[in-house]
Amino acid sequence: MTPATPKQAATVLLLRDGEPGLEVYLLRRTRGMPFAGGMTAYPGGGVDPRDGDTEIAWHGPAPAEWASAFGCDERMARELVCAAVRETFEEAGVLLAGDPEGGAVVPDVSGDDWEEQRQALLARELSLSELLAGRGLALRSDLLRPFAHWITPPVEPRRYDTKFFVAALPVGQEARHVSGEADEAAWLTPSAALDELTSGARPMMPPTTHTLGQLGVFPDVAAALAGSPPEPLHPISPTFEETPDGKWAVLPDGTRVRLVVPLPS
């Protein structure tokens, strides 16, 4: 069979400094979803082609720099960064936008008027560029860092070419459990999340497992933002193997990630 063409997507590891150390915002996808149902993941989703067509107020690294980081053209880079910002707002209620001159980041996006626009974004009745233009805001690409690049293996019927970003929770904003695609949202340290994976309480796809391991070496948000992988990132597409002690995703460097499936509800 001809492998499915991967869809372009972006996902964001939203970070904060908590009492136990560096924490990341995680969503558990509802079990009935056709892709990764019951799995823990980060906020994220597919690109909106409209973001490649329109001018958008932009502060921070330009699309050309993101294109270099992810090995794509400038139009796709623009769509990916916009997807990262839009999906973080849609699924976590956090907006990485602010003063076009690089000043303050918008401090609060939890009011009724913001919620109405978040719902319009979800319904694709409003584009990110339209939302920002209407409020005199700029997308703040300086709040994001490239972190990883994964492509779903050819054997899967649903495939995604996903760029992973890291971003700090802006001062004055709070992540909110607003995603209709998730039945749980939590801030966890990478080690706590991986402990729950090991116990079987928090199944994850291999990209989530692996990036949590990468994130776990950083003591705080500042270190994570400063220590993002060098450019350009190389895409990872695992293969699979089954042994007497379980099923594994095998990465190009030989690293093996155990596959854990959700328990029946």
UniProtKB/TrEMBL annotation:
Residues 5-210 form the Nudix hydrolase domain. This is Nudix hydrolase domain-containing protein. Gene3D superfamilies: Nucleoside Triphosphate Pyrophosphohydrolase. Its cofactor is Mn(2+); Mg(2+). One of its GO terms (molecular function) is metal ion binding. The keyword Metal-binding applies. Coiled coil: none annotated. InterPro entries: NUDIX_hydrolase-like_dom_sf, NUDIX_hydrolase_dom, NUDT19. The lineage of its organism: Bacteria, Bacillati, Actinomycetota, Actinomycetes, Geodermatophilales. The keyword DNA damage does not apply. Keywords: Hydrolase, Magnesium, Manganese, Metal-binding.
